[in-house]
Amino acid sequence: MIGRLNHVAIAVPDLEAAAAQYRDTLGAKVGAPQDEPAHGVTVIFIELPNTKVELLYPLGENSPIKGFLDKNPSGGIHHICYEVEDILAARDQLRAAGARVLGDGEPKIGAHGKPVLFLHPKDFTGTLVELEQV
């Protein structure tokens, strides 16, 4: 079921400073900021040869990233995203195995314009897992 690693998401308290660090210090290809109102975040993708890093910044007071940054003011890894071929089949298989799908269990469109779901971190060794259909 699980495919390749799509990205690692890092919540950051200063989006521009984090983007500059990846661009100027590490020499990475840094994308433009994009607002994702349905998810309450602004994201910037860092392109790497084998995957991506997603920088997350709160979009609005109700952003889930705001709560994360309140607990982790310096930022930190927020989630890891794996690709799946069929997100509904993956969801059903995971539920049958006892994994909890967050929200209403229906995929939302993510930052790449593809369906995504999130899995409860308590079911995956403390790691919030995102699945993205490819």
Automatic annotation (TrEMBL):
<dbReference type="Pfam" id="PF13669">
    <property type="entry name" value="Glyoxalase_4"/>
</dbReference>
<dbReference type="InterPro" id="IPR051785">
    <property type="entry name" value="MMCE/EMCE_epimerase"/>
</dbReference>
<dbReference type="GO" id="GO:0004493">
    <property type="term" value="F:methylmalonyl-CoA epimerase activity"/>
</dbReference>
<dbReference type="GO" id="GO:0046872">
    <property type="term" value="F:metal ion binding"/>
</dbReference>
<keyword id="KW-0479">Metal-binding</keyword>
<keyword id="KW-0413">Isomerase</keyword>
<keyword id="KW-0170">Cobalt</keyword>
<dbReference type="InterPro" id="IPR029068">
    <property type="entry name" value="Glyas_Bleomycin-R_OHBP_Dase"/>
</dbReference>
<dbReference type="InterPro" id="IPR017515">
    <property type="entry name" value="MeMalonyl-CoA_epimerase"/>
</dbReference>
<dbReference type="InterPro" id="IPR037523">
    <property type="entry name" value="VOC_core"/>
</dbReference>
<protein>
    <recommendedName>
        <fullName>methylmalonyl-CoA epimerase</fullName>
        <ecNumber>5.1.99.1</ecNumber>
    </recommendedName>
</protein>
<dbReference type="GO" id="GO:0046491">
    <property type="term" value="P:L-methylmalonyl-CoA metabolic process"/>
</dbReference>
<feature type="domain" description="VOC">
    <location>
        <begin position="4"/>
        <end position="134"/>
    </location>
</feature>
<comment type="similarity">
    <text>Belongs to the methylmalonyl-CoA epimerase family.</text>
</comment>
